[in-house]
Amino acid sequence: MERRLKKFLEDGKFKNVPEKRSRTMSAIRGKHNRSTELRLRMALVKAGVRGWKLHSEKLPGRPDFYFEMAKLALFIDGCYWHGCPKCGHIPKTRTAFWEAKIKRNQERDKMKDRELKKLRVKSLRIWEHELKGKKNLDKVIKKINRLI
Asked: pTM of this prediction?
């Protein structure tokens, strides 16, 4: 567990978590936010927007989409995992853990945005809920087109 997460927890430890559960959860690794990424990808293709790469390993934070010519890094943030002010929430069980986890994700997002800024790369963060519905998706595409 990261030191940064420990500082948000009482005594720096999770309490009342069975060892088996802890091992199981620590073995789970994310596989990108595929459904939301795919939704935006299809909308970009349909709108004829070109020039992007997926998950550029050259850049901090491995942006979901990177428009190299425009130097624009695009991240799709899950409302739950990144603490969306509109629809994100903290579970009622193990609240301290989830508050720390989400706060750490938010801090990491800010840090990666600063690193990108130093590289003169603009970053755009889009909430998962902004990709739901045709009107919202059209707004996102227009915003991307303005920036590129």
From this structure: 0.76
Residues in CB range of 22: below 8 A, 6 or more apart: 14
Residue-wise pLDDT for 109-128, tens only, equals: 999 999 999 999 999 999 99
Burial class (CB in 10 A: 0-12, 13-18, 19+), 95: exposed
Domain locations along the chain: 32-147
Tokens encoding 126: 């889009």
Return the ∠ at Cα 88 (arms to 47 and 101), rounded to 5°: 110
- Give CATH superfamily name and number for 32-147: VSR Endonuclease (3.40.960.10)
Of 123, 76, 116, 84, nearest in space to 102 by CA: 84
Spatial CA neighbour of 88 closest among 113, 106, 73: 106
